[in-house]
Amino acid sequence: MKITKDEVLHVANLSRLEMDDESVDKFVGQIGTILEYVETLNQVDTEGVTPTSHAIFLTNAFRDDEPGEHLDRDIAIENSPEKEDGSFIVPKVVG
Hints:
Radius of gyration: 28 Å
CATH class of the domain at 5-42: Mainly Alpha
Number of helices: 3
Shape: flat
Helix content: 25-40%
CATH topology of the domain at 5-42: Histone, subunit A
Strand order of the largest sheet: 1-2
């Protein structure tokens, strides 16, 4: 499948990108190569292959949630730029 300069310019316009002629020519070639490869992949026989979301099996390496020592309040706010009565002072973020 070939892509035209007009199609690249149309997508650039939708993306609010300004492209010079040299960049458009470059993208026409690069996107054309990608589309040719995708077309090659479309010809691969995937009958009987189970769909997956990842190419490899992934697991999260969570640690056990175990209670521990809490940080002393004075140490926690020691380097705070603003503090008052053992609490952080932060800018108001909600109207």
